[in-house]
Amino acid sequence: MIALIIGILTSLIVTLIGTPLLIRIVHKLNYGQYIRQDGPKSHQVKRGTPTLGGVVIVLAIVLGWGASALYRYLTEGVAPTWAAGLALFAMVSMGLLGFIDDFAKVRKKQNEGLTVGGKFFGQVVFATIFAILALIVPTRSGFPVAQAGMSFIEKPFLNFNFAGRLVATILFVVWVNFLMAAWTNAVNLSDGLDGLCAGSSMIAFAGYAVIAVWQMYHLKGQSHSGFSYSVSDPLDLGIIACCAAVACLGFLWYNCNPASIFMGDTGSLALGVCSQRCRSSRTPSSSRSSSVACL
Question: Where in the cell is it found (predicted)?
């Protein structure tokens, strides 16, 4: 629990201190938001508002998790897990893609950054790398972070191995690409009003954090009362969810109406894939064939 608190405080402090610093830097560089001419006239007053705020959000989440992981390693000897590492990789990679898009907008001084094809290509590349790594790297249970299949409850819903390992891998990669594209673009579309994306994401991540912490205290094989869950590394994803929630909270202070800064695609794409990863848990099993990815 102390590790969780350390992560929360670190993320909140980084956001509250880093956001006003970024606002001043962006103002100095004249990197303001450009508004579509065909949009509502009421939105034109937002022209020139500093953007790239997602940089602080991503940094706050990474540093918050890093501080928590360092504390756990120094006090308990617990090394960071691949589950957390892959979640952060997905978030940072999509945030990088969003940063390239945002930077292109402010450099070209228009509201069009990367082309639709260019952004989609970047999402496919990063999602494919994530999917392949998820099938390879192990969790503490000894099984990979994910296996080729889908489930919505503890029992497998659809196992992709019905057609062989190669086909299963391809189907899994396609499925992960679909999910990541859906979540990142859904959150990106919600970033249209002051505080909307940050506020709704904060609520979602808070819910994920509660679920992850509950699962941590009710793992199968432990002495407890009530329901039990069979998931991998819930504390790590819970810490990431908590850090994301408080990062959104700290950013919301400057992003609520009238916004002093926008998160841009840097923040919305990163939060989208981070949200998708935090709601995904894998059910470990003693049998490799029955273990599926709940993605």
Answer: Membrane
Which residue type occupies 213? V
Binding residues: 188, 265
Q: Binding site for Mg(2+): which residues? A: 188, 265
User: Is the pLDDT confidence value at 169 over 50?
Assistant: yes
Distance CA 87, CA 217 (A): 21
The pLDDT-based confidence of 65 (bands split at 50, 70, 90) is very high
Q: Which comes out higher in pLDDT, residue 160 or 179?
A: 179
Angle at 123 between CA 179 and CA 182, to 5 degrees: 30
Q: Which residues contact 256 (CB under 8 A, 6 or more apart)?
A: 194, 195, 199
For residues 49 and 33, is the Cβ–Cβ distance under 8 A?
A: yes
- Please enumerate in sequence order all residues whose Cβ is within 8 A of that of 210, keeping only pairs 6 or more positions apart, or say none: none
Q: What is the band of 151 on the pLDDT scale with cuts at 50, 70, 90?
A: low
pTM for the model = 0.83
Residue 283 pLDDT: 45
Handedness of CA 19, 21, 24, 27 (dihedral sign): negative
Angle at 126 (CA atoms; ends 125, 128), nearest 5 degrees: 65
With beta carbons less than 8 A apart as the criterion, state whether 84 and 65 touch: yes
SS3 content of the chain, % helix, strand, coil (to 5): 65, 5, 30
Residue 58's SS3 state is helix
CA distance 246 to 266: 17
Measured CA to CA in angstroms, residue 281 lies from 56, 121, 254, 294 at distances of: 27, 26, 32, 6
